[in-house]
Every structure is written in C-alpha cells, then in structure tokens.
Give the backbone structure.
Amino acid sequence: MKTTGISATAAKAPDFIDFVNASPTPYHAVHSAIQRLSAAGFEEIKERDSWSSTLVPGGKYYLTRNGSSIVAFGIGKKWKPGNPIAMIGAHTDSPCLRLKPVSKKTGAGFMQIGVETYGGGIWHTWFDRDLSIAGRAMVKDGNGNYIQKLVKVDRPILRIPTLAIHLHRAANFEPNKETELFPIAGLVAAEVNRTGGKPAADQETEGNDESFRPLKVLSDRHHPYVVEIIAEHAGVDVEDVVDFEMVLYDTQKACLGGINNELIFSARLDNLGMTYCAVEGLIESLSSPEALDDESSIRLVTCFDHEEIGSTSAHGAASNLLPAVLRRLAVLPSHQSSGSDKSYEKISKDDEVDISTAYEQSLATSFLISADMAHSINPNYTQKYEADHRPEMNQGTVIKVNANQRYATNSPGIVLLQEVARRANPSQDSTTSSGVPLQLFVVRNDSPCGSTIGPMLSAALGTRTLDLGNPQLAMHSIRECGGAYDVEHGVRLFESFFEHFSELEAKILVD
C-alpha cells in the first residue's frame, strides 16, 4: 500500500466523494445511483407495470419507490423460477434536520427556520456550520400534473449559532432540540429592504383569485425568499410550487484527508458509503457482456429510505418493497420458455419447478448482505471497545456480530463471506495475488448496540443474512471520517459476492 498520493487501492475514493457530494438527500442519492446504472445499461421498470413480458434472462433493470428507495438487478441467462437471488441491502438516508411544514420564524430581528430532527444525529455538531437546503419539490408541470423536481441549493444560507462561552459555562453542550436548534436565515431588516417593505402575504396573494385554499399559501408557511429559492432551483415559477420536503445539509464538500490522503472527511458516510459500494459492486460484476451468460441466479441491490428512523414506512426495509420484488422475480420464466404462451405450465413440466412455491424456494436458497457502516476504533476512547474486536480503517470491511441479534450474522454467513473475500479481485497495488481483507466486530457486554435492516429482513424473508460495513469514526455527526482504501475494499468484496455466489451457495450445506 502506498503511503503518499492516491494509490490504486484508493482509486475508488474520489469517485465516491463525487457521489456523496451530489447526494445531500435520499432523493439525490437515488438519482445519482440511477445515473450510474443507466450508463451501465440498466433499464428502468415500474412496479405498477406487468413484468412478465418485459423482464428476460440476461437483462439488467432498476425501479424506484417514492424517489428515495431503489432496487436494481441483473438476471442470469440460466435463471429458472425458484433459483437463488444474491442480495445486498443498504440505505440512502442519514440523520439530518428537516424543515417543518410551517417553518417561518422570527426572533430578535432574525429570520429563522423551524426544523425537526430526523434520526439520531449528534446535533451539537450541526452548530456553526455553513448550511443550505436540499430535497424535492412537488410542482405543477403545465399539463395538469404534479411532478417531482430535485432541489439542491449550493450556497450557504443557514447557520445555527452557538452561544458564546462567556454566556455559557456548562461542561456539557446539550442543546434543547425544540428551542435552541433553529437556524438563522438572515436579518428581518435585510428582507424588508429586499421586498420594499411590502408584507409577504400581499406579495403572494396580489393578483391571485379568491379560490378556496385548504392550507395556507407557501409564503405564509415559509419565508417567501426560501420559497423563491426553491422555485428557482426547481426551474419553475413560484406559483407552480405546491409543496416540498427539504432538509438541511452542510455545504462543505467531502474530501480526501489525512497526511497521506488515506482518509475521507465527509457527511453522510453512514450510509452512502455502503450504498455506493453496493451499486458499484453490482455494476462492476456485470461490466462484461458475458457476465450473465453462465449465471443461474439474480444479482440484486436494494437501497431503502428511512432506516435511521426504524424503517417502518412504505419505502423502508420493513415495507413490502423487497418481498414484493422478490415474489415477482421468483416466478420469472427461464430463457428457453420465456416466449411461450403457456410458460408457467412449460416451466413446471420441463424444469420441475412448482410455481406455487417458487417464491419460498428462492428465499430458502438466497442470501442477503445487510450493508451498513461500522465503527472504527477511536484512539481517544479505546476503553469503549471490546479488547479483541477493534476494527481499523483501511484494513477491510467489518463483519458485525451480536449474540442478541442486533446483527443477523451467523457462522454459515461468515463462511460464505470469507470465500467471497478470498476470491475477490485485488487492487493494483495489493501485495497479494487475490482477495480483500475482512475484520470482525462485537460490542462490549456493558455497551448498547445499534441495529440495521439485517435482522428485520432476515425475519421477514427467512433468508440467510449477514451484517457488515466499512469502518468509520464520528457516526451520525454532521462530518464523519472513513478510510479511503476501504471504498475499494467494499466494491471488490461486493463484486466478488455477485460473481461467486451461485457456486458457493450450493457448497454451504446447512438447512
């Protein structure tokens, strides 16, 4: 491993930095993933459509739900109903501050923005940062339809100021999330000067009809200039913005750090780090035109929204998204029968598959990797880590184990992943001929343990599951830290998982 510059092992790090900088929200993360998948030849499909005449063995597809969750997969040309499906699951959301439905606030001559906390963020890290807004706006398109437009304001417009130390001598800084976490957006006097002193309500309603409005107009609920900025970045007129979902994000871009560029300083490593590795791993496993020729499985990645708040939503991991997709894929006709009018009958006769149980057969032989970032050892708090389980940055992806099933890992999964890691393509400057490193992690018995989508999906599907993630520091801070080399480790591991799963699955004999 090189000690200066950007080594081949870290070659994926700059690309990941581009990905995370373009993805301040789950909507943007899904959009970034779509751009990469489309460039790699994946075709968009929709849940509301029939797939029986669209999906064929050898094809590559993706679908989205709510614009914030995405599923992408490639179907092996030797696929048969009931065959295994190799899956990697990640999530697109991160702890953040979200604009309230009525966000307009003022105080002591300042314009302020009302926000609510999303997830378990380390909220004191959001103070004194150069913040802006991003998200989606629902707008009228001129044809009577309402469509989604992505919004990302690149300049700093908000800030949450700390109280000067002279006025606050407390040892611990624990801000009240309802009264002390509101960002300032500017001065009331400056806004009055900008608008010529005309009240905001008059600007909004002047010249408009007197039609009934179930809710107050946006410029009554939010500062008018905020609405104007959103409309500008959505590329529409202010009156065409019907509603929006906006979150705050730090405008400081992700970057390489450390004396030897061996670190990544970034927001949203948890969990865009594993979202990126999963999507890139799938794409690279299918980069060869012949990649699916001898494949009997389906290679699938799913990235959910709302993991940070428990996953219970229509597009979270606890929804029917993945089970519904798997149920439809499990009964897809094989290649030799895909054009038959009586395809199900032909499959059952020729391939000895009972279509009524194909879904259950697929689940029994499939495997899910739950990919969520892991904890690196923090040198200032070594006493917080179990003495024999202290993951290090740039030393490989971390297998997460918990006896109380906060993680879903067990021994058959570890056996599979070891073989996958052993067969992975090494980076160009690796000292070994093949393979990527792995690490193990458990929490101390006297420490709480977080969880992932792994346990809930393994329980819902009955599918073998393993939890893992690349190590990082400052998880849930506005500014996190990870290893530059581990991006490449994660991509290579997932690429190898997809390429070798069909062979390895049949060799791990546990019912």
Summary: The longest helix spans residues 484-505.
